[in-house]
Model the fold of this input.
Amino acid sequence: MSRRAEPATKKPPEPDSTLYDDIEAAWLKQRPDLDLAAACTLLRLERVNRLHEIRLQEISKAVGLQTGELYVLLALRRAGKPYELRPTDLFRALLVTSGAMTKRVSRLQDRGFVLRVSASDDGRSELVRLTAKGLSTADRGIVEVARVVESVTEASGLTKAELTTLDRCLRKLLTVKTVKTKKSGRLAERD
Done:
């Protein structure tokens, strides 16, 4: 018994896409009284961020670093000549603890990517400065980041206008640091 060829159908959506659509639909069915569309958008944003982190881990590995170490080199590189910053500026810029930064800088120094030097304006404080090896590695890393981001943007089909709108929206979300609910400043209990 021969099978007839089935007509070609559209390619099914990627699993990540349907997962979040399913979550949104389930909440809409279970709690139609709540508007959770923005919460589902934020879930998608978390997934986009996780995929970006995975790509950055691959780039870091390709240049022989851990991701946090690459972040340090990139922060120093974007500081401009002489490619140096105070450790305090580094940990604040990279949103890590001072202890985490100390460990990263020590590993990078041991491997010849950075030097610790005295600050010329205050002999008591030190700066972290890129070496030639660190500068070369940072440049290789940022070129690869740019290439990967360009490829992702191209593959997604996002236009420059859409990216501009997305950036503007994310900037608005970043202005919200804390949230109080309408019921006495605590999480509202379900009635």
User: Anything to note?
Assistant: The longest strand covers residues 122-130. The chain has seven helices and three strands. The helical segments are 15-30, 37-62, 67-78, 87-93, 98-110, 132-156, 160-174. The CA atoms of residues 57 and 67 lie 5 Å apart.
